[in-house]
Design brief:
By secondary structure, the protein is of the alpha/beta class. It folds into two domains: 28-348, Up-down Bundle (ABC transporter transmembrane region fold), CATH 1.20.1560; 370-453 and 533-621, Rossmann fold (3-Layer(aba) Sandwich). It contains 20 helices and ten strands. β4 (432-437) and β5 form a beta hairpin. The chain is elongated, with a radius of gyration of 35 Å.
Length: 626
């Protein structure tokens, strides 16, 4: 029994914050037109594959013709020498040769075109992957990883399916139908061709109509499939959180509800599929009866030979087999087009942050000056509004980090401290004002050269599911083992790594879950030290460390920031006392600035924060019951 494969995903929501109205789904021909350039790279293979298709079908259609001659030759009288010479030696050998030729040309077609199929799939997948990395942080904060990876997976498979079904099934079937109709019309009366043509038209019309009607059920099924997949991925990624709150049962029920909705949608889709299959078989059966009735009548009347009857029957059997799967092929091609359209939809997402046409490379051989000039910024933008009008984070912010100096930013959570790092990396563009490096507006620089010049130790360190050596070397791919170990020693993590059974080949687990928070943060420090950029950002770089390790690493961070332009974002004030300037940020505005000593002397907001943290530290260090 024929079954459908589940192969499409629901479309992702438009990129959050984008003011552009989401583009309507493109038609099938528009999707094909986007695919053709990838295939046209292999145009000679396409032509060669089509030639093999025609040759294979010509051999296949010749088989019933030869079968007719073989059957008619059986009417030779017994004892006639031709019965021995012509039938076995001639027709049988030719019959076998044609069967073999059909197989050989079919295999040649697949061999010739395999490189084009795999090459096109590879090119599109790579382009989508690169484009996703080029999209803004806003998009990646809003996306669902499970659903998006499902779209990529199905889109890649859709390229292969579309080419396979069209070139290997639809095109050969059309070629064969054309040859058969021509032979029927030439060798017999036109009624045979008209019956076959009418059956094909009715079959195709019925298939297309019912399949288009079924599309709504398919879409619902695929949306529920993506939804259940996303829920499962999200739950597994948050394994520890599930365990912390003892919510395994809750997650199982939530996933089961999604699976139950998917089950009901699949049953509805299957019932409509059964209706389609039954209608198709009815049309084919009627065509077969009509053709054989006409052929039998012709044999009885003497207009046709027994070989003609066998040939017509063989033609109908050869057409019946591909026609039997034409509905499946149509649905799969439609589904492949849908999957491909979804992947092309990812390519159509506009880059919120893009290089200017005349963007220049940042040359920062020495530590540059970094300036924030009247910067205002908001994360969420309402559709059609200008940047900076919704949920403002920063307000007319201005400060300078002199070349080779360290500026620290402190303040309560939500003040906008980490936003400064995101803007400096140009994950977002500022709403008003500008940020300059060495006098260049960063919007006039290429993003690659900008980010090459900046290193960061983030507050929340996420590692690749690979070895410790790989994660440290990610700061500078191609670094030697000695350089990796030197960076680890500077980050005070070499001893821990060396004590592991396999040392630097120790796997850190997904997102680095096998390491403690402090160990992950020291790996992040090591890879930034290995990168050795002229600008460094420490975003709560020691937040996951205990006091002893914090003091040890603090010296290393100061060494790492020496002779570099450094921005330190901190919550614990003890980590920024040596900064050249400290900015106190509240609600996106600088309320105080100066050195540690000067800010204490002002007895303002910084002094209050310092006193509060000092008293908390003294209370924590006092013996119990004191």
């Amino acid at each position: 029994m024929r079954r459908e494969t589940l192969s499409a995903a629901s479309a992702l929501p438009p990129e959050a914050g984008s003011s552009a109205v989401p583009a309507p789904p493109r038609g099938d021909w528009a999707t094909l037109s986007k695919l053709l350039p990838y295939l046209w790279t292999y145009k000679y293979r396409v032509v060669a594959a089509l030639a093999c298709v025609i040759a294979a079908k010509a051999a296949n259609v010749s088989v019933p013709l030869l079968l007719k001659e073989l059957v008619d030759a059986l009417s030779i009288p017994i004892g006639d020498p031709r019965a021995v010479l012509v039938v076995p030696a001639g027709l049988l050998l030719a019959y076998g040769a044609l069967r073999l030729a059909n197989t050989v040309f079919t295999e040649l077609r697949e061999l010739v075109f395999a490189k084009a199929t795999e090459g096109a799939a590879r090119s599109i997948s790579l382009q989508v992957f690169e484009h996703l990395h080029a999209l803004s942080l806003r998009f990646h904060l809003e996306r669902q990883t499970g659903g998006m990876t499902r779209d990529m997976e199905r889109g890649t498979r859709g390229v292969q399916s579309l080419i396979s079904y069209s070139l290997y099934s639809i095109v050969p079937t059309l070629v064969e139908v054309g040859l058969v109709l021509t032979l029927l019309a030439v060798k017999f009366d036109a009624s045979f061709a008209w019956i076959t043509l009418a059956a094909l038209a009715a079959y195709i019309g019925f298939t297309v109509t019912v399949t288009e009607w079924r599309t709504q059920f398919r879409k619902q099924m695929n949306e529920l499939d993506s939804s259940s997949h996303s829920k499962a991925i999200d739950s597994l990624l948050n394994y520890e959180t599930v365990k912390y709150f003892n919510n395994e049962g809750f997650e199982a029920r939530r996933y089961d509800e999604s699976l139950d909705r998917l089950r009901r949608a699949k049953l509805k889709s299957q019932s409509t599929l059964s209706l389609l299959n039954t209608g198709q078989q009815l049309l084919i059966a009627c065509a077969l009866i009509a053709m054989l009735w006409r052929a039998t009548e012709g044999v009885v009347a003497g207009r046709l030979t027994l070989g003609d009857l066998v040939m017509i029957n063989a033609f109908m059997i050869q057409l019946y087999i591909p026609l039997n799967f034409l509905g499946v092929l149509y649905r799969e091609i439609k589904q492949a087009l849908t999957d491909l359209e979804k992947m092309f939809g990812l390519l159509d997402r506009e880059r919120e942050v893009r290089d200017a046409p005349d963007a220049t490379e940042l040359r920062a051989d020495a530590p540059p000056v970094v300036r924030f000039e009247n910067v205002s910024f908001a994360y969420d933008r309402a559709e059609g509004e200008q940047p900076g009008l919704a949920r403002p984070i920063l307000h007319d912010l201005s400060f300078e980090i002199p070349a080779g100096h360290t500026v620290a930013v402190v303040g309560p959570s939500g003040a906008g401290k980490s936003t400064l790092a995101r803007l400096l990396f140009r994950f977002y563009d500022v709403g008003e004002g500008r940020i300059t490096i060495a006098g260049h507006d960063i919007r006039a620089l290429t993003q690659a050269s900008l980010r090459r010049s900046i290193g960061i130790v983030p507050q929340d360190t996420v590692l690749f599911n690979d070895t410790v050596a790989y994660n440290i070397a990610y700061g500078r791919p191609g670094a030697t083992q000695a350089e990796i170990e030197a960076a680890a020693q500077a980050a005070r993590i070499h001893g821990f790594i060396a004590s592991a059974p396999v040392g630097y080949q120790t796997m850190v687990g997904e997102r680095g879950l096998k390491l403690s928070g402090g160990e992950k943060q020291r790996v992040a420090i090591a890879r930034t030290l290995l990168k050795n950029p002229p600008i460094v950002i420490f975003d709560e770089a020691t937040s996951a460390l205990d006091s002893a390790n914090e003091r040890a690493i603090q010296a290393e961070l100061q060494t790492a920031a020496r002779n570099k332009t450094a921005l330190v974002i901190a919550h614990r004030l003890s980590t920024v006392v040596d900064a050249d300037e400290i900015l106190v940020l509240e609600a996106g505005r600088i309320v105080e600035r100066g050195t540690h000593a000067a800010l204490l002397a002002q007895n303002g907001r910084y002094a209050q924060m310092w006193a509060l943290q000092q008293s908390s530290a003294e209370g924590a260090s006092s013996p119990a019951g004191a």
